[in-house]
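Morning!

This is the sequence you dropped in the shared folder:
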Amino acid sequence: MSEESGYSPSFKRPSEIMRMRRKRARSEAFSSSPSGDTSGTEQGASSPSSCVRPFSPGPLFFNNHTRSGGGVKRRNPFANIENRHSPRKKCLLFDDDGQKAESSTAREGDFHNRDDLAFSELMSKVEDMGRQEKHKQQKVFSLSEDDSLFEETEEDVKAPLPKSPQAISRLSIAAPLCTEYPADWSLKTRLLFTSSLSLSWSEQPKAQEEASGLSQHCRAQFSTWPHNLQEPKSCTELRCAFQQSLIYWQHPSLSWVPLFPRINAERRFTGTSAPWAQDAELQQGLMSEWSASLSSLYSLLKTRLCPYFYVCSYQFTVLFRAAGLASSGSINALVSPTTRGLREAMKAEGIKFSLPLVEERTTSREQQNHCDEERQQKNSCDHKDDEYCSDDREADDDDDADGGGSLSWLKEMGVQDKIKKPDSIQLCKDGRAVNVDRKPESVVYVEGPDTFTLINFLINCKSVVAAAGSQAGLPPTILAPVAFRGAAMHSLKARCVNVKSQVGSDYQNISSMEITGPILPSSLHAITTLLRPAQKGNFSATLYTHAPTAILNILGTKQQGASGPVDVSTFGLNPASIQQLMQPSCLGKTALTQITMNNYSYTWKK
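The structure's back. Tokens below.
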């Protein structure tokens, strides 16, 4: 290995390196003279040692192609056997025309050679070699140390492969553009938007802008604005549309009483004036107005003039949706949470409903039991003792299922015939029914004409109104995105604050906007649609969900797609919001907690 030409397997000491530098300097000074140049050329043409290896591993070069002094570049003292071989540097690539060729060894020689004449001669030789290789129809050659030849296929040469991992990531790992987030049917109590751009354009509207927003909402008119906004604060159409997106309708409306949320909100009602609590006539008047409002709103829903509405009681929440929304072909309703007493009362009224989560769990359990039975049949017992054990276990299970195991003491006393044996199967069903009370699994799904029966049930059922406590005598709260009989117009409260957030070692100005109130699904979508052009496609939102309504994102067991196209122009909302609400929800039992838009692409968290 040490005798191999052009290779030094050992390191040099500093004293030897300095001696070699001085020697090379003297040789370069000697070769700079005309006589030295001529002698060097003649010697390089005749001496067999004229073929030397350059600084980096590669093919052998001649002295007349080395640097302009005739001197030979010193050998790499750090080279070893493993890193001498570099096929990428020794690969000659030619194009289809054969006129242009590129060689890494030529580039290496260009780096070390400063003589223009020698470089031109080298390139001419490379072009001649390219023409010869074209006639042989060989595209790629690689020359190794032992003069072995490797040939690449034509498909590999023609394939436009990227040259770096960065290029691969940019080409093949491109993030898809998501222009919409899934529909969320839960009610929100608070929204917090943050952006690096200012959100001050959304606050302190002018009197004309506020009036225009209210008028457009009542007339179901939607203005257009340029998608490339330079200054959102000076865009009147954008500010009017923002005021329009904050409006919702509510019944009853009592300015001194917070009527949302109603579940587990006794502390919010404590200390407030409730003149209807002890006045039966006042309670009857409130319920009469409430019943008229609910009937009117259901008529709007049935004629596709209202997309959806909520009925918020002190015990449960009901969501009514028009046909075509949430991938349903008919009017449907979701009630959550429920109790066994409420479900029995609904059955007594003739309301047909289903428990989607309970049925899903039962189906999965039956499938699991079926799989277990098949597995047990395959693994039958080989010994009699095992058979006896299995028979005893089955007998015990039958006794437990029939309730005989728990009443065996009656037989010992001799009074088993005098006492009626209870129906254990019914007890088991009742136990399962009680276990899901007031839980998300107790959600009830009603569809089709049964929703009208559900409306009558809510009007006539006395359990929808609290009989005692801070909410006694107060009818449930009705929330809707459009106007209906007896409803009052309300607006969500928006407030903007500019804060400084620490990013690394620097502080960055962050603009935040807080929106509070009963935030409906259409309002959330309308606000995010406005923030998209105003914030140049970059903002984030934190969503605070009313927990009992998160289960309203499930799909009913009987839901089917709409039979035909749905006319969304009569709903009174932005067509883009209706299109989102028409899609089936994919959130299941959860709700959105965060929405982020980056470069006009949505990401979200549940």
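Headline: Residues 1-85 form one domain.

More detail when I'm at my desk.
O.
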